[in-house]
Amino acid sequence: MSGTEQGTLLTGGTGFLGGEVLVRLLERDDNPVYVLIRAEDAEHADARLRALLESLLGSAEPWADRAIAVRGDVTHAWLGMGRRDRDWLAERTDRILHCAASVSFTMGIDEQRRINVDGTRRMVELAGLCARRGGLGAFAHVSTAYVAGTHPGDFGEEDLDVGQDFRNSYERSKFEAELLMRERGWGLPIQILRPSIVVGDSSTGWTPAFNVLYGPMKAFARGAYPAIPARRSSPVDVVPVDFVADAVLALAGRPGGTYHLTASERASSVGELIELGSATASQPPPRVIPPWLYRRAIHPVLLRRGSEARRRALRRSEVYFPYFAMRARYDNSAARQALGGTEAPPLASYFDRLLAFAQRADWGRRPVSRHEVMPPRPEGQPAPEPLLVA
Fold first, then answer.
1. pTM of the predicted protein model
2. How many CA atoms lie within 13 A of 236 on its CB side?
3. How far apart are CA 341 and CA 361, in angstroms?
4. Domain hosting residue 175, numbered range
5. Which of 314, 295, 319 is nearest to 303 (CA)?
6. Interior CA angle at 188 toward 23 and 109, to 5°?
7. pLDDT band at 2; cut points 50, 70, 90
8. Best CA proximity match to 191, nearest among 127, 153, 138
9. 357: CATH
């Protein structure tokens, strides 16, 4: 590791959202970015970061002096660092952006907790060390609006434990991570940021992660769903990654609080999603069946009939079906005010770009690097304007 100036420690930089945050840190700031990288040794960490920068920005060279790889792993005590390395890092970190997480809906709860809960606890411990050694101006923890779980109705930004249950281990582990932040983060400059379903860039559709909404989108595009368990009026809260990454940077350092990075009043609905997906792909829309009836009478029949490809699509989609019958709506008043009124664009305004890119990338089978569709900013050209903060 090299570098002497204070800067930002970023976890999850090799992930989808974390990569977008990394690009913005490099393009909009002059300070170092210390990127936590899982690796066998420091040389491997440097190589992984270089490959990441080349994929995101086309070249590592313009950023090599400010993007600094830090070998570490949130699943290990003290991130797997010895005392000398963690002291070195703590003295140079004045802002932490914790984007690292497992986002799998099917991973077992023990493994989810090891990454999402224990990993957050270790970042809280490091944040405390940073505060003692060099001062800490911000600790932004990226959570999810789906900590609301099965709660029906409005879910506010300061709400957390409202007696809800959870649809999967991901929701539960992120809920438990927030509980831990509230219990152990006292005295730290914490912001909890809760995006909803994060999809590709609103201007290009680019994404390396074809999960969550993309499973149903792919099935709609191929006519794989003759029927789905849903309520047409159920909200589908979707936000593009560019909005979320901008908001993470804009809100980090705000006075302690929780912010919903959600579409909220602009959220789509199951009915609109079906219409958008079917019309864009020129496929007949699936029938919408009440969830209880679908589970009892329709799904078992569909799994016995039809092609093997259709059966595989249905099995893969089962984990997402509960999101077609949600009743929760997320209030984002504090975030909207803090962002100067800036809101996520409605899904309908960029859905065609999401689908076009997904088809170009064959739903992840033909990976497309970010710099191929989002060229880096030419030297001398001003960085894009960040979101305003009121």
1. 0.93
2. 28
3. 34
4. 7-201+237-265+328-373
5. 314
6. 70
7. low
8. 138
9. 3.40.50.720
